[in-house]
Amino acid sequence: MAEPIKVLVTGAAGQIAYSLIFNIAKGDVFGKDQPLILVLLDITPMMSVLSGVVMEIQDCAHPLVKEVISTDKEEEAFQSIDVAILVGSMPRREGMERKDLLKANVKIFKSQGAALDKFAKKSVKVLVVGNPANTNCLIALKSAPSIPKENFFCLTRLDHNRARAQLACRLDVPPNDVKNVIIWGNHSSTQYPDVHHATATIQGKEMSVIDAIKDDNWLKNDFIKIIQQRGAAVIQARKLSSAMSAAKAISDHMKDIWFGTPEGEWVSMGVISDGNTYGIPEGLIYSFPVKIKNKTWSIVNCLPINDFACEKMKTTADELVSERDTAIEFLTSA
Length: 334
Ligand code: NAX
Hints:
Helices cover about 45% and strands about 20% of the residues. By secondary structure, it is an alpha/beta fold. The strands form four sheets. The protein has a six-stranded parallel sheet with strand order 3-2-1-4-5-6. The radius of gyration is 19 Å and the shape is globular. The structure holds ligand NAX.
């Protein structure tokens, strides 16, 4: 059997982690033959709740789980880890300004970035989920200069899965028969879910989603709004934010990093922009279409972009530039 890998989940007493840890422990993410050391970090007041989660992990009797470490100390949590899934963050409270939310999160991700830099393996793969995910990821990356910036990702796979599922539903096909949608930009309501390159298999024949749906008005208006507002719709109905679907998306994202994307397919991931790709400013964590091979990502480049798409890609980039500038201000003054 392989050596265990050490996987850290932060926000481990929260609702996303509750589903996510189960997926990881049963081998859905890193494989059915990969032993695991699970490291669970949360804040001190949540340690009692976390101890209940640890009891439940034991009670699942998953054969792959060799050890569970639960802690409220970053120096213990980040020690020699292979994977960091950073879910825990400061939630937006009623009446809280966006700037205050960013400030609180800069503090958390600066500290966790520094802990990655000091304690984690240099090969660690880091997935930031806690919102604002793109900018939190950027702060962690900037605070961990000894770790390659290509090792940092933010989660936009939930938006990608939502887009795929909505198109599949409209076409009355299984979601796996819809491929190559793209989420561009920020994991926020400015994100641009793009169907221009997406295909669907209908009665055994692969065709463009645009030709299959034959409703430009729906694709340009309602579809985009549904995806941009889906998180809010779940909150309104459930009185809690997406958790099961977020855990599934995190699992899909990490599994693709570990095992690669299928031939002929790409997925959406927030990764660092080099400034030369689709005109997106250098240094932003921006969601692009990405392929993965040997645990290394590359952006699917040179897709034709029309004026409609170009404008939407710029709107979400502009929002990220403004978030970044505010966060950097806090980072340098903190
Ligand atoms: P919960 O409030 O259920 O859990 C968050 C947990 O994080 C809590 O147990 C809290 O104590 C812990 N925490 C707070 N600060 C911490 C710190 N400094 N170190 C370690 N743990 C800390 O939230 P949950 O529903 O699990 O959502 C977690 C985050 O995911 C939120 O920021 C949420 O907005 C974000 N999401 C991001 C998504 C994405 O696609 N990028 C989608 C789902 C979700 O909305």
